Every structure is written in C-alpha cells, then in structure tokens.
Amino acid sequence: SIETVLKRSSSSHVVRRSFGSEPSPDRKVTVLGAAGGIGQPLALLMKLNPLVSKLALYDIAATPGVAADVSHINTRSEVKGYMGDDQLGEALEGSDVVIIPAGVPRKPGMTRDDLFNINAGIVKSLCTAIAKYCPNAVINMISNPVNSTVPIAAEVFKKAGTYDEKKLFGVTTLDVVRARTFYAGKAGVNVADVDVPVVGGHAGITILPLFSQATPRGSNLSDEEITALTKRTQDGGTEVVEAKAGKGSATLSMAYAGAVFANACLKGLNGVPDIVECSYVQSTITELPFFASKVRLGKNGVEEVLGLGNLTDFEKQGLENLKSELQSSIEKGIKFANA
Ligand code: NAD
Ligand code: LMR
C-alpha cells in the first residue's frame, strides 16, 4: 500500500513530494512538568503528533520512566527524558515550543490564586532557563494561576532582554473545550462542530464565554440557560477539583486542550494559514495589558490579536465585571517578578 511505501522509504520526503505535499519541518517540543498529571498524557498526545520531530520531557523527578515508556510508540518524534536542574538546559536547547504544566494543582476549597505562592517561583525559575537556552521558543503556559504566571514570564523575559510578546501564550483552550461541550449539550448541535470563543482570563469570573457567537447556532437558548452555561464554564475547573476530591484538578481534558493548542502553534510556525485559537496574550483590545481573545497564529507566533466582536448586554456586563480581578492578578504577577 502507499502507506507501507511511505513508511519504508528511506528518503520518504521524496515519496511524499510526489503526492504534492511538503514534509513538515523538524520541530522540537519541550514539556516542563512532564511527569505530572497533565504532563504524562500530554507527553503521549505530543508523541502522537506528526509535526513533532523531537520531544523533550523534563521534570524534577520520574522523567526517565515516562520517556522510556512514551519512546516505544512508533511515531515520528525522538523522545528524551531530562531530570533535575542540571539537565534543564539540554531539555530546552533548540526547542521551538515549550509547554509548561509544572506546578501544584488545586484541592477542594482553593482558588487558583491560592497556588500563586508555590507556582510563581517555579514559573520564574523555568522562564529564567528558557531565556537562557531557547529565547526564541513559543511558550504555552499552563501553570496556574495563568492570569499571573503569564505576566511573570513576560517580566522575566523582559529582564533577560529576550521578551517577544508574540511568543508568549497563556493556555485557555480548556475553557473553549468546556464551552463547546456544554453548549452542544444544551443547544442540540453536534459537539464536534461547535465553536465558542472564550475571552478574558483563566479563573472564575475572568473566564467569559461568548455564547452569542457560538457556531453553528442550535436551538435558541433562554437568558437563564445562557447564564447557567456561563457559570458552568467559569466553574468547570472547580467541578473537576471537587469530583477528584483532593486528588488534583483537570489533567486528561487539560492534556487534550494543551495538545490542541500546541498543535495550532506548530501549524502556525509551519506557515499553515488561518490558524485561530483563543489564548491569553499581551493585548490592546481592552485596557488590560494581558487578555484572552481569539488570536491568529503564524510563523512568528501571534500574527494578530482579534477583537471581541459584537457582545450582548450580558456579555458586556461580564466583561466589565472581570476587569478589576484580572488587573490585580496581572499586577500581582508583575510585582512578584520584579521583587
Ligand atoms: P501535578 O502535581 O500532577 O504535576 C505537576 C508536575 O510539575 C509534577 O510532576 C512536578 O514534579 C512538576 N514540577 C514541580 N516543580 C517543577 C519544576 N521546578 N520544574 C519542572 N517540573 C516541576 O499537577 P497537574 O495536575 O499536572 O497540574 C499542573 C499545573 O497545571 C497546576 O498549576 C494546575 O493548576 C495547572 N492547570 C492549568 C490548567 C489550564 O487550563 N491552564 C488546567 C489544569 C491544570
Ligand atoms: C482548570 O480550569 O481545570 C484548571 O485551571 C485547574 C483548576 O484549578 O481548575
């Protein structure tokens, strides 16, 4: 079969060319926190991504086992595990995309901001290493509180003289994934076809799904139904934290969301046109210096931060309500990084 020919060919790019498509370029992806609840399934999903040629799995412990395990899967990327400070540089060197799910997760009763004291320090030290070893990489920040860890990363990079606002992303894809699932269930549309922009930030009321822009349109939902869908999306993380009852927060759905977002970044880097995802980035579409909205991805990371579109009165109110919390989370991150 053609597939066998492609697999067996020692110069497969020649064979592929004859079918009209260019081979995808070499891309190294590094996962920091790769032995964790998110890190392990994310490592698996990135190993399945044919756009990845090298997969570097870093954590403070347990990465040799995770890397040995994942490396046996017969897909394109070469997998290596790295453990401890001494090996962080090597894990990062030459990386095109660095995904960061390192840090502690919530337990019931905690807010994401309660993670700040531990995770801010972890993110600061990892970003210091990124500035040194792969200053041009695209960063996918998953560690919470995202509303603060992204500004921390920006400050660390600014101090190192490596900051490129086009390459720093807070991963809010899980909010979009949840909004799609919950909307499809209520509006009676095929869940695989649904899209819903989610803007603002990634904590409580700063998560603002724009159901008025959901596509395709399903059955008309009442104001009460939209209010309930909005609240469920905002509390989606807490729903999982409570169900896990002390054993952490979302890991599997987050690994899926992280893999979707990283894939979009890789496609953008490879020059695939019209790649649009919501993400928390440096922004001028509101008065807040960081804000999540639809972003067009390209060869340099952010190609364009897209606007909010038309908002309903309910969404306008949600936008006003989130600004002070988001602003103070941003300021908290900046202050920490400069302390
Ligand atoms: P986890 O505790 O299962 O895994 C975290 C991993 O990070 C561990 O393996 C730990 O060893 C590692 N780690 C700690 N310090 C490190 C360091 N200095 N360098 C490298 N690795 C380090 O937690 P988890 O469930 O995987 O969650 C990780 C983070 O992701 C949490 O902060 C959580 O709140 C966040 N999260 C974000 C989203 C989102 O939508 N952005 C979704 C879910 C979870
Ligand atoms: C999520 O949205 O699931 C994550 O941010 C984890 C959490 O603490 O809720």
From TrEMBL:
NAD(+) binds at G33, A34, A35, G36, G37, I38, G39, D59, N119, I142, S143, N144, M254. It is an enzyme of class 1 (oxidoreductase). Keywords: NAD, Oxidoreductase, Tricarboxylic acid cycle. InterPro entries: L-lactate/malate_DH (IPR001557), Lactate/malate_DH_C (IPR022383), Lactate/malate_DH_N (IPR001236), Lactate_DH/Glyco_Ohase_4_C (IPR015955), Malate_DH_AS (IPR001252), Malate_DH_type1 (IPR010097), NAD(P)-bd_dom_sf (IPR036291). Residues 28-170 form the Lactate/malate dehydrogenase N-terminal domain. It holds the Pfam family Ldh_1_C. The keyword NAD applies. The active site is at H202 (proton acceptor). PROSITE patterns: MDH. Substrate binds at R106, R112, N144, R178. GO terms for biological process: malate metabolic process; tricarboxylic acid cycle. Residues 172-336 form the Lactate/malate dehydrogenase C-terminal domain. Its EC number is 1.1.1.37. One of its GO terms (molecular function) is L-malate dehydrogenase (NAD+) activity. Belongs to the LDH/MDH superfamily. MDH type 1 family. Homodimer. This is Malate dehydrogenase. It comes from Aquilegia coerulea (Rocky mountain columbine). The lineage of its organism: Eukaryota, Viridiplantae, Streptophyta, Embryophyta, Tracheophyta.
